[in-house]
Amino acid sequence: MNNCEEEIYKAISKFSYGLYIVSSREGEKPNGQVANTVFQTTACPPGIAVSISKNNLTHVCIADSGLYSVSVLAQDSPMPFIGLFGFRTGRDINKFEKISFKTLGGCPAVTEHSLSIATVKVNKAVDMATHTLFIGEVTAAETLRDGVPLTYEYYKTVKHGMTQKNATTFAPATK
Amino acid sequence: MNNCEEEIYKAISKFSYGLYIVSSREGEKPNGQVANTVFQTTACPPGIAVSISKNNLTHVCIADSGLYSVSVLAQDSPMPFIGLFGFRTGRDINKFEKISFKTLGGCPAVTEHSLSIATVKVNKAVDMATHTLFIGEVTAAETLRDGVPLTYEYYKTVKHGMTQKNATTFAPATK
Q1: CA distance, residue A35 to nearest chain B CA (Å)
Q2: Helix/strand/coil (H, E, C) string of chain B?
Q3: For the segment A133-154, what is each residue's pLDDT rounded down to a tens digit?
Q4: 0.85 surpassed by complex ipTM
């Protein structure tokens, strides 16, 4: 059986996600990317995991610093802003040049269009071949404002957003 | 700093999730539970992870069989049905006695009130102290019907659903 069959992608495309900016730094240089695969793994202490493509600069940053932050995007985040973090690479541009961010728990965290931010200290990196699952504990967090969190479903169906090829939910068979 | 502080739980409570029944078996005996922490970790081959409390019988089943299935719950799933899988233990009752399920890839999968099902063969079990993160590859999947997937947010705010104490998103400080 070919695991990449269309039926599998169709079935698991019904999973629900939020949409986040995951940020980190290489030395002092901040970088970040859009991710939908952020989730809480334990209640107390509060553990978080995220799956990041090995192709992405953010992967280098997290492996280097052992830290990442999660910014929960607001539903009304403009598409050019999401596109900056989702479809550009920090190898070509400084994504943090013209946007608002702060340092939280030693890690840059995007505050613009974000409802809350949390910084994670990585204590496990699980090799998933194409991606690494970075698991750790939340060391600092802030709620920035009230609002509706952006879901991946809303991004796709209402905002007509695309899925980047390094996303875990990019379906090779079905595009 | 106390990681269990209210600020952290408030910030990460804005993460978005779906709601699923994760099923497995101990020998031939099926069991399952509600979980919100299901997510895709890789695109090709399609990898899935779920965080399961060590207190739960489903944890014993997955560790025993090396298999689990994910059923994507429909938004119109009735609360008594969700309650059966979310707030009862398979140690006291057979949750599968009066509900519809099928065997998919060698694993029981709940089909009732489900939009799609997928069976995962576990290839990594990551110890998270209170929970285990079971990661694996999807070996079989089926889409059962069209419909809107139930999100954790909809379950909490529209259906007024509670969070079970073994859930990763159970907030000790804020309840």
Answers
A1: 11
A2: CCCCCHHHHHHHCCCCEECEEEEEEECCEEEEEEECCEEEEECCCCEEEEEEECCCHHHHHHHHHCEEEEEEEECCCCHHHHHHHHHCCCCCCCCCCCCCEEEECCEEEECCCEEEEEEEEEEEEEEECCEEEEEEEEEEEEECCCCCECEHHHHHHCCCCCCCCCCCCCCCCCC
A3: 999 999 999 999 999 999 999 9
A4: yes
Q: Which of A86, A78, A76, A53 is nearest to A146 (CA)?
A: A76
CB–CB of A46 and B9 under 8 A? yes
Q: Which residue has the higher pLDDT, A168 or B19?
A: B19
pLDDT in tens, A79-132: 999 999 998 888 889 999 999 999 999 999 999 999 999 999 999 999 999 999
Could you tell me the pTM of the whole model?
0.93
Interchain proximity A124–B124, CB inside 8 Å? no
pLDDT value at A24 more than 70: yes
- Those of residues 9-28 in B touching chain A at CB distance below 8 A are 9-12, 14-20
With an 8 Å Cβ cutoff, is B74 touching chain A?
no
Domain boundaries, chain A: 20-157
Contacts of B152 in chain A (CB under 8 A): 16
A120-124, B65-69, B95-99: least confidently modelled range: B95-99
Q: Which CATH superfamily is domain A20-157 in?
A: Electron Transport, Fmn-binding Protein; Chain A (2.30.110.10)
Contact (CB<8Å) B49/A49: yes
B2–chain A Cβ distance below 8 A for any pair = no
Strands B101-104 and B107-110: antiparallel
**For the domain B18-157, what is the CATH superfamily, name and number?**
Electron Transport, Fmn-binding Protein; Chain A (2.30.110.10)
Distance from the A7 Cα atom to the nearest Cα atom in chain B, whole angstroms: 6
| Run of H or E including A115 | strand A114-128
Interface size A-B, in CB pairs within 8 Å, comes to 207
